[in-house]
Amino acid sequence: MAIYLNGQFMPIEDAKISVLDRGFIFGDGVYEVIPVYSRSAFRLEEHLRRLQHSLDGIKLANPHSRAEWAAIINQLIERNTGEDQYLYLHITRGVAKRDHAFPKPPVAPTVFMMSSPLPTPPDNLLRSGIACITAQDNRWLRCDIKSIALLPNVLLRQMAVEADCTETILIRREPGTGGEFLTEGAASNIFVVKNGILLAPPKDNLMLPGITYDVILEIAATNNIPHEVRRIAVAEVHAADELLLTSSTKEVLAITQLDGKPVGGGKPGAMFAKLHKLYQDFKRDVMRSR
Ligand code: PMP
């Protein structure tokens, strides 16, 4: 497996970074996960735009132009086998003496990228759907930044694993009113379906703006699927006809069990079937137009 580190391609075994790297010491960095279908990066512009948003959020200059990123990404795809891959792209504030404050320039950021095989979700998962739990969203207030400091997400996701579930759905409590509403999953976005309407939480500082989330809303708009983007109360999550999970690696999955209880009929529903098919068509059309 060839990886990219600071201007060079090499086998992963040869990749070395300093223990003083601020990513290692502070989690001071951001990342992206970009799916590759038929050896072509999916929604590259959108991923690079979100990367820029994350970099701006941590006041780190983008080390590469759009064209440079595209060149590095295409070379990495070429140097790895597999039609479908997922690229992990990671930028930190570089190597400096340990001090919370930003190091004085010039400090080169660390840029790392690797490719892994991207299996599409297996048929049995598409047929059965997945089980999830809910938990309080105890993360910070800049969840729109794709930060490599993922300890809260790690702990929340582990809660699901320990409950024999796939994902933890996060519920944020509003200070003051005490109202509780849906934000997202520990590593995914969540949609609610009620009475044929697809409901999505709004993109704000409390959730990561998912690239798949955007694709799903685009598909809904072009296919006249009724949809609303608005705050979703926790009661609506528990009373949903269907719940859907999206991410670049999981695409769209039906959540058929929540906190040990069936969601709707306890089977993947009509909205899931429709969106899953439309998502596959969308992917195929995008790739065909390359
Ligand atoms: N929210 C969080 C917290 C995530 O980590 C992810 C990605 N794994 C998503 C949402 C989904 O984003 P995308 O569709 O871009 O993969």
Structure write-up:
The protein is an alpha+beta fold. It has two domains: 116 residues, Aminotransferase class 4, branched-chain amino acid transferase, N-terminal domain (D-amino Acid Aminotransferase, Chain A, domain 1, 2-Layer Sandwich), CATH 3.30.470.10; 166 residues, D-amino Acid Aminotransferase, subunit A, domain 2 (D-amino Acid Aminotransferase, Chain A, domain 2). It contains eight helices and 15 strands. The strands form two sheets. Strands 7, 8, 9, 10, 11, 12, 13, 14 and 15 form a nine-stranded mixed beta sheet that branches. Strand 10 and strand 11 form a beta hairpin. The longest helix has 19 residues. It is globular. 35% of the residues are buried. Bound molecules: 4'-deoxy-4'-aminopyridoxal-5'-phosphate (PMP). The site of 4'-deoxy-4'-aminopyridoxal-5'-phosphate (PMP) has 14 residues, from helix 6 and strand 13.
Query: Oligomeric state of the chains?
Result: single chain
Helix/strand-derived category reads alpha+beta
Helix content: 25-40%
Please identify, by name, the CATH architecture of the largest domain.
Alpha-Beta Barrel
- List ligands, each type once: 4'-deoxy-4'-aminopyridoxal-5'-phosphate
Radius of gyration in whole Å, from Cα? 20 Å
- CATH names the topology of the largest domain as D-amino Acid Aminotransferase, Chain A, domain 2
CATH class membership of the largest domain = Alpha Beta
Averaging pLDDT over every residue, what do you get?
Answer: 97
Number of helices: 8
Global outline = globular
Task: Give the arrangement of secondary structure elements.
Blueprint: E1 2-5, E2 8-11, H1 22-26, E3 29-37, E4 40-41, H2 44-57, H3 66-78, E5 85-92, E6 110-117, H4 123-128, E7 130-136, H5 151-162, E8 167-173, E9 180-185, E10 189-194, E11 197-200, H6 211-222, E12 227-229, H7 234-238, E13 242-247, E14 251-258, E15 261-262, H8 270-288
Parallel strand pairs: 7-8, 7-14, 11-12
Antiparallel strand pairs: 1-2, 1-6, 3-4, 3-5, 5-6, 8-9, 10-11, 10-13, 13-14, 14-15
Helix pairs in contact: 6-8
4'-deoxy-4'-aminopyridoxal-5'-phosphate is lined by residues 33, 153, 184, 187-189, 208, 210-213, 246-248.
